[in-house]
Amino acid sequence: MNQLSDRKWFIVGIFILIGIIYIVRLFYIQVIDDTYKLDARNQAFRYKTEYAIRGYIYDRKGKLLVYNEAAYDLMVLPKEVKDLDTLDFCELLGITKEAFIKKMKKATQAPNSPRRESIFEKQLSPKEYASLQERLYRFKGFWVQARTLRKYPKKIAAHTLGYIGEVDKAIAEKNPYYKDGDYIGVSGIEKTYEKVLRGKKGMRIMMVDVHNREKGSYMDGIYDTASVAGLPLTTTIDADLQEYGEKLMQNKIGSLVAIDPQTGEILAIVTSPTYDPNLLVGRARNKNFGLLLQDTIGNPLFNRSTMASYPPGSTFKLIMSLIGMHEGVLTKDTRYPCARGYPPLGGRPKCHPHAAPQDLHGAIGTSCNSYFSYVFKSVIDDKKFHDTYKAYQNWRDIAMSFCLGTKTGSDLANELRGNVPSIKYYDKVFGKGVWKASTVISLGIGQAEMGITPLQNANLVAIIANKGWYYTPHIVKAINGNENDTLLDRFKVKHNTMITDTAIYNEVIRGMAKVVESGTAASLKIEGIPYCAKTGTAQNPHGKDHSVFVCFAPKDNPKIAVGILIENAGFGATWAGPIARLMMEKYLKGEITRPDLEKRMLEADLIHKGKLPAEKEKH
User: Fold this and answer.
1) Rounded Cα distance, 9 and 448, in Å
2) Judging by DSSP bridges, how do beta strands 265-272 and 254-260 pair with one another?
3) Residue 569 and residue 607: Cα distance in Å, rounded?
4) What is the pLDDT of residues 401-416, one digit of tens each?
5) Whole-model pTM?
6) Going by C-beta distance under 8 Å and a sequence separation of 6 or more, which residues neighbour residue 272?
7) DSSP code of 591?
8) Confidence at 286, pLDDT banded by 50, 70, 90
9) Separation between Cα atoms, residue 96 and residue 609, nearest integer Å
10) Residue 409 to residue 411: CA distance in whole angstroms
């Protein structure tokens, strides 16, 4: 009996042990290890990211510049792909078997995995989606996810609007909001205002049957999260003026920027050559991007407005005039000789023939190189500083207060600072204590190592139009219709330069008016609109000189300031000046009174046609 009793408890103990093992195992599977749970869910559920609608972008008058168009990504979960007719699938998508193998391999390798969904084929058009959807139920493990692509109805302002692209691994690892396959603003407004435009993603949990067909939302969607659309932006751009500027700049290399000096709002910003922004959208994006990169003559992807640094040339003489009067070494009546060049250095820098000596207004009107070389030397040799370095640093500080050699702080992506050479730089080049005003005399006429961007050039003339103050140039006017959004507060702060005496600006403005009345831009008058300007010819060590022009109109209560540079186009009054004049008239009058001038600018091809017509006026 004792043996039977012992055997009974032994058998009971075995069953209890087996029971405990099962309980522990079930606990591990159901509570600790969620692999089986996920497998079960993945068989029954599909987690679909609901991408937010990206915010629309409008011009200052409400014209649509950027909107969204439906597109679809073909998703894959490799672990669920079973009994696939590869040839039929490849035929449906229009891809080769080799391409299929490559894509499946990518879907299973890190950072992807067989248990993780990823994009198999991206950005299918609505037509491709309709064709695919009819037969997709036959291919287990594949489904379609909706998203949107950007579209551009007017095909303008490509560099300013920018484009979006896939998030790279570094961004995805750094920012948990993004994951592989997401899109992000890469350049332009799309980049600067990414957080505003992108909105917020949502998630939908869908039930699927054994045939990979969706059977509706899980629990009627109570666990779904809705996406939140991105906010619309109203830009400062005048779409009509922008389009007109791009037409005028066609077949020319350079940049044009127009600013409302009273607000700092950018009315038009043109980089030429440009491209149709629709080229960098959809499945053809990579191919088109490569083709644009191959254009090494015009470099259409390069944003010259904010990233190209050019010598300002004679337009810098306006700053030299202001600094000279501010420092007390120049008056409107000061006269300097000119013998087709700067006499103390044997006629270098050279100058073009004109009456001499001139007073300040005449020197600005005729753009005398000798005059402003004298002005620069008088500023750097000013005895009140008793030191070349102190005088030079003072000159540099004043110039930089006009946003030269420093970023303007605009909301344009990838803005560069240009260059106003430092003492440290010249010490390195010439030796400490060796150089002096005559060594770097070309700075007085905007040459040597001086470099400014077209945006800075337009802002410079806007500052003169305002007589010493400016608002930071900007491209966005309102967010979701709100002009008082806190993101835009910094564009309402008035900035002052180191020169605040309006009497000094008045003298320079009189000189700029003389440029149009009887000077180097006398052929570019606008009937009924007196305006101020300065022509420039920026010397280019790599080829033909650049054509430069800055202006604002009207002379009193100015509403538009324009800075323009055309590469390798020679004198400022020949090409840059006419385009700037047409832009101002178009904006202020809505019509053009010089169709002959307009026709010549529209038809001119300065890229592909060898030599330019003979030119008479310099500077």
Assistant:
1) 102
2) antiparallel
3) 10
4) 999 999 999 999 999 9
5) 0.88
6) 246, 249, 250, 252, 253, 254, 255, 256, 298, 304
7) S
8) confident
9) 45
10) 7
